[in-house]
Write a structure and sequence with these properties.
By secondary structure, the chain is of the alpha+beta class. The chain is built from two helices and four strands, in the order E-E-E-E-H-H. The longest helix is centred in the C-terminal third of the chain and has 18 residues.
Length: 87
Amino acid sequence: MANIKINKIASHRNGISGEPFYVVLFHDKDIEADMVATVFEEPGYVAVLAIGETVKANIEFGNGNSWRGDHFEKDLRDAIAEWEKAL
């Protein structure tokens, strides 16, 4: 299970015909990094990037900004469910 602190969640429509998704800003306490996740409705569709590496234009797989979405998925989806309940 990931050791994260949720900072902000937003829902996106993805245009008029695309799949909706969530964007989650969070802090990973284990690696001490701020992260951004894109979470689609279908299970297994989660992408995670470290914000600091992304700002440095590092978006390459296997070069310090590759993170397993499945490692964070349960905690992110739980946080999204709580956020939706509070709306």
